[in-house]
Amino acid sequence: MVPMTATPARRVLLAAPRGYCAGVDRAVIAVEKALEQYGSPIYVRHEIVHNKYVVRTLEKKGAIFVDETAEVPEGSIVMFSAHGVAPTVHQEAAERKLATIDATCPLVTKVHKEAVRFADEDFDILLIGHEGHEEVIGTSGEAPDHITLVDGPADVANVKVRDESKVVWLSQTTLSVDETMETVDALKTKFPQLISPPSDDICYATQNRQIAVKQMGADADLVIVVGSKNSSNSVRLVEVALGAGARDAHLVDAAEEIEEAWLEGVSTVGLTSGASVPEVLVDGVLAWLSERGFEDVEIVKAAEESITFSLPKELRRDLRAEAAALSRTAPRK
Length: 333
Description:
This protein is of the alpha/beta class.
């Protein structure tokens, strides 16, 4: 008699934290509040955050996303995305008489200020990041004569500076921590006097999501990362999962993109989402997996997150004025 083999239990390792970071939450709420406050349309320069679902949802509410400031009709309201913009974009908006709301993530603003400060001190700034990414374009625009982009460790050999005693590195906030430090190590070998930024440029949320994926990676046959393909931090999570030992890993915008073939021979699925992904999309993947026998969900917790950012000052000012007006006209009790 041939002994029966038990079917391995199917489970999901659900990363925590995952999904929206404070900067994304702030930016999305800013668009919604602006639509409530001023009505549609509200123009947004580039995607407010890199997520298809979020962009489509805001478009249905009256937001219009444009590639360039020149596409916004004069006298309109334009919001700048969470990724930040260069000073020249602010100038373009002023020339077109546009009212602006700046939804740049405060952590990106911190990098901008660092770039300006080091440029004022005449440092060469080596900006670690991906060429063409909106955040990199915005940061580079703060000090174009002082910034050199370094796109990964392989790019280090091409870097030249004026004075090796006055060199500092900064980074895009959504990079892989490990790859960034590999790039930094290579830069320090080439430029021993290289100065580091006063604090980490890679944002807390990016780091926490990568740590959670590292913790689950070795135990997962398959890791599913919910996020859009133009989301740098989401793409990095796939790379981190594979580097941590996951047999397979894929990036999907939603449950409909998961392929049944990925589940072949899989008993443990790791699940996480990028920092611009609403939880409703993760819920959709959990439901899809549950229908296929993956009903046991275990939380893999890497950190607690309690950071919040206030709304852009333009909205806070107008919202306060509106609240004050309402209080003046409210009937006395």
